[in-house]
Fold this protein.
Amino acid sequence: MYTEETAIAEVLRIQEIGHYRAIDAIKRDRELVSFIKVKFEKNYPNETESLSAKVWLLLHNGFKLICPYGLKQKFKKSRKGSQFNCKVSCQCTIDNRNKTMLNKYGVLGIQGLSTIQEQTKQTCLMRYGSISANGNKDIMKKQINTRQQNCISDYGVIHEKQVHFTELARETLNNKEKFSEMLLNLGTRKMADKLNVSKSTIVVYHRKLGLNIISRVRSCYEVELANWLKENNIEFKQNDMKQIKPKELDFYLPEYKVAIEIQGNYWHGNPKLYKPTDMVRSNRGKIAVSEIWKKDKYKYQMCLNNDIKLLSFWEDDWLENSFKIKSMILENLKKV
């Protein structure tokens, strides 16, 4: 009759035979197998594991199957030795990996090392003729084609953003001739209504198809602000996408490192008019107002990270007192 001490001693003796034959030898000792199973059921009720895992748990008394983050660990066999580990996506694994990287290299990721970065650049230059694979047009074209094929396979469309489009919209938006003909006949607003998409979607695909039928849609407030900046000899860039790429700034004043935006009540979900759970239309379909606020908050944080002061005003505030807003803008203009 086995006890815990004698069972552990017997398992260790059997393991000396060889890592891959140990379990087969243990299986032949029915009394030992029975003891290991009873011990496992006592320590880990309502759990099911292989005999290999039960043997490991016998040798590691008191081991907890649930990690500190509440996830069950999985038993894995390897040449280096079998053991229980968390999933790759578990925070435990991430913490351990970060700890190892910091101890070994002093950075959280190996790509943070200057030597690795330089080696990567040299490899890309040798293989692709640019400091990154994305700088090679053939590679980029291949990536786009692969992405489109995957989208067609998964969603039946060439881009996941087109999932909510009607069949007529997909056919028209991806055909230069049909798009041009409909836009010339109906105009932006009526075309958007017919295809059941937003006006901004029409503008986006107009640019993608390389057409020059309509100019970029700008609100009357943007036009008024642009004219006012010109009158006051204030240098500005409109629809700037370089400062906080890939996000766009309506107005960027480089001399002062100031960005200005007049946010539409509907498109940005003015809290005076909308609740967080309200749904509004966007160029990606319907979206919760709370999600729009998150995006605007992220944009504000990106400006802070780049030492840019972002001045945001609501559409109704501009309507009520544009003179006051212009005065506030002037107060915030200090040369860098």
About this structure: The chain has 13 helices and eight strands.
